[in-house]
Specification:
The protein is built from six helices and four strands, in the order αβαβαβαβαα. By secondary structure, it is α/β, with parallel strands linked by helices.
């Protein structure tokens, strides 16, 4: 008879409400992109440009687009905000529209104080005084989706930030 017959096996079941969080816990750098829905094409372009950096910097990039149908947007964004290391805010007049401050409040007023907030100028606007205190990238607003030079400036600066965080 084999020796392992008298051994006792214990199976432990772990319940986790959000398996995605458990899987993403191995990521060393959580990034949340905050944007207004009118700027969704810029968010998509930024996600594509961040794709090659995901493996090297162990990035977990999240935004409203990664939420599942039926999830409460405010609750999920607040949960992601509490876990992120970097908050990338896509600055535009729509993001800062104080007549309809829902998006501004969602990302700016409720931001994680431990997270590094990086404004990314996508369309010309006069930044909120608190946001204006932060170093924004690129030097000039991206303006249009085909502005490869401005997008590359953003990626170059983000690589510097991620490299500094990694060390």
């Amino acid at each position: 008879m084999p020796e392992y017959q008298n051994e006792t096996w214990v199976i432990v079941l772990i319940r986790h409400d959000n398996l995605g969080d458990l899987i993403r816990d191995h990521c060393s750098c959580r990034v949340l992109i905050g944007f207004h829905q009118k700027d969704a094409s810029f968010e998509q372009a930024l996600r594509i440009l961040l794709s090659p950096l995901k493996a090297f910097y162990k990035l977990d990039v999240q935004s409203e687009r990664t939420l599942l149908p039926g999830q409460n947007i405010e609750n999920e964004i607040n949960r992601l905000m509490g876990r992120c290391h970097f908050l990338l805010i896509l600055l535009s007049p729509d993001f800062q529209d104080l007549d309809n401050p829902v998006v501004f409040n969602r990302y700016w007023k409720n931001r994680n104080p431990r997270a590094t907030t990086i404004p990314i100028k996508i369309r010309p606007c006069d930044p909120h005084p608190e946001i204006d205190k932060l170093m924004a990238i690129p030097q000039k607003p991206i303006g249009r989706l085909k502005n490869d030079k401005a997008f590359m400036e953003v990626i170059t600066e983000l690589k510097r930030v991620f490299e500094n965080y990694k060390t």
